[in-house]
Amino acid sequence: MLRRLLAVSACALCLGTGAAAAQRGAPPPASAQPRSGDTYLWHGELVSVDGASRTLTARVRVLSEAASDVGRFGVGDRVLLAWSGLDVHAGAVRRVTRYDAGQQILDFFALPVELASRDVQGEYMTVRVRIPEAAVAAVKGRKPGEWLTVTTRQRPKADADAIVAVGVYAKPPA
Q: How many Å apart are CA 74 and CA 76, to the nearest integer?
């Protein structure tokens, strides 16, 4: 009887502690959160690549609620894309805000870019990003309209090191 009473008390204590942590807004366990420095993947349609400036211009998918955000900015403006995403895969841009190089990026699926066009055509917007030297060579022979897979750092410290790699999009096996 005493053992049961102790076991029930211990369970109640554990449950109470978990509920209190949830009410305080405590973050989920570290194993449930992506680690800083991890990467995610997004896909884009190649518009152009400039080897001299190491920039990639691509069309990326944008959700309708974020499409209206694009019109608030001008061509060449630095913006921060917030992607919808799950695990390590970004789906479409869900928010576009002004980017300040001094700001700390908190969203795991965020990417600082230059707005290449104010026009949102269908579900796509056009952006420009700096890419590593090795990625320039990987993309240089590709034709506009081909799809690429871009590996990006989660919460990059600076926009210049946000992109890790660029490769040709490979359709997953059925």
A: 6
